[in-house]
Amino acid sequence: MIRIFLIFYILFASLSFISCKTDIDVVEETTGNNLIDDSNDSEEDEEEVILPLELDAVADFAATEGTAITALDNGDSGADVDSEGAAITYQCYFDVVIDDAVTSPVLCSLLSGLSFNSTTGVFNWTPNFAAFQNGDVSGRYEFKIIGTSSNGSDEEIFVVTVTDILPHQHPDQEWIEVPANAGGLGLPSFWVMKYEAKAWNDANSDGDIDAGEVDADGCNEGACTTDSWGEASNVPVSVADNLPWRRITPVNALSECESLGTNYTLITNYEWMAIARDIESQGDNWTGDAVGSGCLFRGNNDEATVGDGSNIADSCGYNGSDPEAGAGRDIRSKHILSNASEIYDIAGNVWEWIDWDDPYAPTAGFQTGVAGCGPAELPAIVCGSLIDIEYNTINGGYDSTDGVGYVNAGGGGATRRGGGMYNTTNAGVFTLYAISDPTNFAWGDIGFRCIYRP
Q1: φ, ψ dihedrals at 300, nearest 5°
Q2: How far is residue 354's CA from residue 415's CA, in Å, rounded to a whole number?
Q3: 175 with 165: CB under 8 angstroms?
Q4: pTM higher than 0.70
Q5: CB 294 within 8 A of CB 400
Q6: Which secondary-structure segment (H or E) carries 159?
Q7: What is the tens place of the pLDDT at every residue in 113-172?
């Protein structure tokens, strides 16, 4: 008997990913019978019986997107042969109808990231994040491996269940969880991009964010003058390096966030306020290292840089690059949430579009915000339709001198928040401008940030 052993070793590469190993091996085994002539008790010649090829059963198993599944040939890198020296060849097929039959077979090699050696039976697959089933490779796959020699053939069928890795769980990205009831607004927990959205083009369709695939300047050109660029070929991602995706209208920013999948969308005003009020309540975000002491960090905003942000007399913001990228920058570029998560550039750097929508009952399409409210300091704003929890601090008395920001809801309705790289004292986590047309307004200092609602 010739046996082919397929042994899967599951290795844990991290808390989020499982690495599975599979052994495919050929074991040569023969057996014989002594044929006895009962009439004269004479011994006939011993005959060797060659049994047909037989594969060991393969157990079903689970894998995770982005995790390598490797089939080894037990250290045997050469071609496999049976006990008579006849070469064994292998074939591998799959389908996605789980019926113990593989009735609509497709060559395994057509699965992105999968290779199969027909001589050694070595099977390698890293289910990536794109390439199959409309960009999502999660689900159940039924595989059939056939071994054949001149002495027969056999086949084994097994099922691999691939677990989906959502964009905010992607190992190449950084998103943070905003705790439930952040800022006292009563919202359930949600996930938000740690960094302003960057434009990613998966040039090799492997699902990994490789070097050179994220647009370096965020505008697809050094001049940064082309509006609404790259929307058909790029995906928003949260990574530290490269400049924020800019020159995009709020309507298209919403569309880009929704393209990530179900429950992904552009951050809404209430979710922004939950983050802003949570930030306000953490002493680490104030130059005096206590709530209300000194001023609240307002990021890269072009104001004269005074100190390093760790002293009550230091400037609330700083004058950095226009705009900036990367982690480990001036401490005023990031804020700390109550769960110790860090979020970058939510004040200063580039403005960010927000959707004026109800997170409990979302409405299809981009929603405009308030209009007709003249520019004013937060506590002094007079606007009949704007209520306190939509714009103001928990304290209720802070203004731009405290680093929290400024309000200008004059017209147009498309809302941007946080301030930009040129807004000096008007930048801040509570800054709110609603003066733009939602369908044709795209500037080089306005970006966006996506969220995920579990």
Answers
A1: -80, 95
A2: 6
A3: no
A4: yes
A5: no
A6: strand 152-163
A7: 888 888 888 888 888 775 333 456 788 999 998 989 888 888 889 899 998 888 999 999
Residue 97, φ and ψ in degrees, nearest 5: -105, 115
Structure tokens at 311: 């002293």
Residue 273's SS3 state is: helix
Residue 6 scores a pLDDT above 50: no
Q: Which CATH number fits domain 2-163: 1.10.10.10, 1.10.260.40, 3.40.50.10860, 2.60.40.10?
A: 2.60.40.10
Polymer length in residues for the chain: 454
What gap in Å lies between CA 285 and CA 331, rounded to an integer? Answer: 9
* CA separation for the pair 56, 28 (Å, rounded): 13
What is the token pair recorded at 411?
């017209």
Residue pair 174/184 in contact by the 8 Å Cβ criterion: no
- Residue 280, φ and ψ in degrees, nearest 5: -55, -30
Could you give the CA distance from residue 251 to residue 357 in angstroms, rounded to a whole number? 13
The rounded distance, in Å, linking the Cα atoms of 127 and 395 is 50
The dotted CATH code for 166-454 is 3.90.1580
pLDDT digits (tens, 9 = 90+) for 188-199: 999 999 999 999
Q: How far apart are CA 350 and CA 199, in angstroms?
A: 15
Q: How far is CA 250 from CA 42, 148, 341, 441, in A?
A: 96, 59, 27, 8
Backbone CA torsion sign across 210, 213, 218, 223: positive
